Amino acid sequence: MNARIFLTQLLGALGLIVILGFNVIIMDWWERKLVGHIHRRPGPMHTGWHGILQPFADMLKMLSKEDIVPDRADRLFFWLGPAVAVVPAFMALAVLPLAPGFALADIGNGLFFVFAMQTIMPFGYTLIGWSGHNKWSLVGALRSAAQLISYEIPMLIVALGILLAAGSARLTDIVNAQSTVWYAVKQPIGLLIFFITAVAEMNRSPFDMPEAESELVAGIHTEYAGMKFGLVMMAEYTAMLVGSWMIVLLFLGGWHLWPLPPSPVWLVLKLYLVQSGIIWLRGTYLRLRVDTMMEMSWKYLIPASLANLMLVGVLATTFKGF
Amino acid sequence: MIEDHPRVGRLQKDAVTESIVLNMGPQHPSMHGVFHMQLELSGETILAARPVIGYLHRGIEKLAEHRTYAQCMVLVDRLDYISQYCNEWAYCRAIERLARIEVPERAEWLRTMYAELVRVTSHLMWFGSVGLDLGGWTPVIYAFIPRERIFDFFEATTGSRLMPNYLRFGGVKEDVDPAEMEALHAYLAKDLIDALDEFDGLVTGNEIFLSRQRGLAPMTVDQAHAWGVTGPMLRACGSTRDLRIDTPYGVYDRLDWESCTDTRGDALARYSVRMREMRESAKMALQCIERMPAGEVRTKVARVLRPPEGEVYVRHESTRGELGFHIVSDGSPKPYRFRVRSPAFMNVSSLPHLCAGAKISEFFAIFGGIDNVMAEIDR
Amino acid sequence: MGLIENAERPNFILTTIDTLLRWGRSHSLWWCNAGSACCSLEFAAMGGARYDMDRIGSGLVRASPRQSDVLLIPGPITKKMAPIFVRVYNQMPDPKWVIAMGSCAISGGAFRESYSMTRGADTVLPVDVYVPGCPVRPEALFYGLLKLRARVRGTSNIGLAHREPIYVPPDLPPEWEAEVREFLGEHEAC
Amino acid sequence: MFGQGLLKGLSVTGRRMLGKTECDMYPYRKRVLPPKSRIFLSMRATPDGKALCNACLTCQQGCPDNVIRIEQDPEDRKRAVSFRVNSGRCTFCGICEENCPRHALTFTQDFERATFDKGTLTYALIADGTATGACVIVERTEPEHPASAEGGEDVG
């Protein structure tokens, strides 16, 4: 391997880490601010300008907290759990393009690579929940595994519809195919299903079963303290970033905003709009019951996504350029 | 029995699994205080539930025997700290019946008004905690906005937000400033109703909420009577029992209102009964403000009250159900025996039966519908 | 090496980090609500729209004691509940603080003479801030929180010692021991 | 139609998200509490700094929680040498204020009393026979309520 390519890749990876940390900090603040305004209260206010320094204070505090590992916990997996949850999300970021061709690795199978990485994340959540030797987190871990597995199926089937229409699994090609009309317009059912399943994949309310605060004390991360808890939070925000990024790329036209010229600014804007929408859902809805949620996936979303796939297939073969 | 429950029975026949015991509480975010529930789980299905109480047992009934009747009012406030005026009123009625004290007309109207206002705040608190139990953060914050407004009225007129110590034997402590009443009237007539409509929009019509509550933990009238369940929970099963009608007190017989009942008996019925009761209570408080006669608010009673020898039991429709005070007097300034029939205690006793066979997440929907206050259960 | 060896004599780097950490901690005090009685309602009101403790970064009431910094005792500690509060306190990671809210938590308050009550939270836990009131107004608790922030900002991290709870288990009759152990053992597994 | 309630909920929170907040901004702006609110026990004093209390012990005897400790002057029983209040035990029920025949006791609206030291929660309203800083000076010399004239004691 050429040294120059190696150096670029290394710098890119470091840049991704910076983006990741920046995103976590921004989203932490933005979520508290937005949920606060939904609640008719100002949210963080007095730590810096409108509380903008709040995430830094939280981070500093978490760094300096005592690091507790429960007595009977599996020490190795207790450490490994957050890492297994963070790293795949981070790796998925490597193939997500920010601008045409501007990705760390713009690989031909980008779509599947992202889904493959997302499939590993529930494993991390399960490890987090199981290793703490706590009944609450065990229940949370089992919920997490069941939920993520059953919601991946409709998600992938909907993504197949996109693949069918775009004719390529390269994410840049998929975005470029939407330069005039977004797939959100062409496949609205697909967008709806993909949005629901993406929210479920991120463990966000109303699908936050694994860390159902009122039911399972703190769910999978009941035993996590200090910076390890910070890592779990980071994994959740990164999962949210990856999920919203996929929604934007697959359905909302990525960097295209017709009739304006394509620009990464639109992508970032859409990204944070989608994330704000997810926070809005959190501020509005109650949690679904765990068995209702499973039923929803197996009884409604999977048949609907298959129907969507058939519809897209018929349309794509009938009309050229669908 | 639990073994006869269709869902549990099938589960046990089909698979041989080891059940786990999950200790829920006493320190748990949605236990409404320090309540301990031992759940025996198979997967997420509850096979058996054993409530453990007594973590907040402060010995109020014993402490009251060492205090004068007037001093007991402080303890009565803290008995059920969400419906203070109802408690105080029930206690005052008991002592007034024991010592044969007449209550002036205006005081009765004031008492009724305060009791209905506190019913609104209590149900608002319940609404918020139901939202919290079901995983929403917004309902509780929204519920506190009208609650704060009514607390402002409480504070301006009685001197305290939560623990008023306002009712006295033979009346109330002092008259209410008409300007305050005017402002409250304006609030109750419009803003409170708007807020309740908003809650309906946020939660009541929400399909997620309905899917969690409809048909959950049904209870028949016979079962409710057998378990001693009273109040909104009983009225949700189709019974029309409401002590405000059955054994009239205050000025309820002169107000234009109706008792809220439902026939379905499930968690959703309990929810809708309480939501409608809030509107009825606001209506009653409005009528009280409009039609309240002028006059004295307090009859002269000896500072150290010595009721004649005897005993009394008074039933009262508290926000949670039938609140009873059984007081035995031996003629001294202190009660000889002070016993409370607490509605929440009886309502919680139905919990093991209601949640056998339910899921963990259903448990919280059932538990929220009971609207318990641990301070009243443990006393 | 040098940093740690000279920890007795704070140097520039150490004091800068220390100031930074103190700032971070004081602006991010997360609660563990050992909610028992009336005062926890006023605590909930403080989280509500009118007072909004999230403004100063304390808006998160963590359900798990592992992730919280301040243990709030908003009500009476009965003898039955005392060991459980100690347990919750021990589960919290250092550094941690305790706020006793209301008369019951300060001294037993109205139930001081009762047979089933401890005489205040400070017989069980090392309390930092006492907030008087019965129940405490949300603003008064807010003031108590500001006081605690001042203390956290003033407490150096260098050589911060772990504070043990003061609780001494009562002398139980020997015939109760098996029962108590079984009871506590069940909690242990939880 | 399924989903109607979900959209309704979103519209409620969306409206609130864009609307005004309800916050009091406590440490920066303080709400004026109503004069009746019972926050901390205090004592009325005449403009020249003498307390109205005549050490009749009504408040001490009536208090449910033994909050008030009065020490009478052994020579002059109508004069209190010290009047201490333990606000760490007080339940703020207002019985003392209500019972006081001379209306000497009152409640202030100063709630910022949180402390690091439990001992400082006990404060004196009268020390060495003179009113201390916790007292509220009354300008009026006549009794506030006409009912207090029943006692037949000269106030002022």
Summarize, please.
By secondary structure, chain A is mainly alpha-helical. Chain A has eleven helices and no strands. Chain A has two domains: 64 residues; 250 residues, no CATH class.
Characterization of this structure:
The complex is a heterotetramer of chains A (322), B (379), C (190) and D (156). Chain A is an all-alpha fold and 322 residues long. Chain A has helices spanning 3-38, 54-63, 75-95, 110-131, 135-166, 171-176, 183-186, 188-201, 226-250, 264-284, 290-318. Chain A is 68% helix and 0% strand. In chain A, helix 3 (75-95) runs parallel beside helix 9 (226-250) and helix 5 runs antiparallel to helix 8. The termini of chain A are far apart. The model of chain A has no long low-confidence stretch (mean pLDDT 84). In chain B, strand 7 and strand 8 form a beta hairpin. The mean pLDDT of chain B is 86. Helix content of chain C is 39%, strand content 8%. Chains A and C meet through helix 2 of A and helix 2 of C.
Poorly predicted tracts of residues of chain B: none
Can you name the CATH architecture of chain B? Orthogonal Bundle
Identify the strand order in the major beta sheet of chain C: 1-2-3-4
Distance between the termini of chain C: 41 Å
Key words describing this protein structure:
heterotetramer, A: 322 residues, mainly alpha, 2 domains, 11 helices, B: 379 residues, Cytochrome-c3 Hydrogenase, chain B, 3-stranded antiparallel beta sheet, 16 helices, 8 strands, 50% helix, 12% strand
SSE order and pairing:
The complex is a heterotetramer of chains A (322), B (379), C (190) and D (156).
Chain B: H1 6-14, E1 20-24, E2 36-42, E3 45-52, H2 60-63, H3 69-77, H4 84-99, H5 105-133, H6 138-158, E4 167-168, E5 171-172, H7 178-204, H8 207-213, H9 221-227, H10 232-235, H11 243-246, H12 267-291, E6 310-317, E7 322-329, E8 337-341, H13 343-348, H14 351-354, H15 360-370, H16 374-378
Antiparallel strand pairs in B: 1-2, 2-3, 4-5, 6-7, 7-8
Helix pairs in contact in B: 3-4, 4-5, 5-6, 5-12, 5-15, 6-7, 7-12, 12-15
Chain C: H1 2-5, H2 12-26, E1 31-33, H3 39-47, E2 70-73, H4 82-91, E3 97-101, H5 102-107, E4 129-131, H6 138-154, H7 177-189
Chain D: H1 4-18, E1 40-45, H2 58-62, E2 68-72, E3 80-86, H3 95-99, E4 105-108, E5 122-127, E6 130-131, E7 136-137
Parallel strand pairs in D: 1-7
Antiparallel strand pairs in D: 1-4, 2-3, 3-5, 5-6
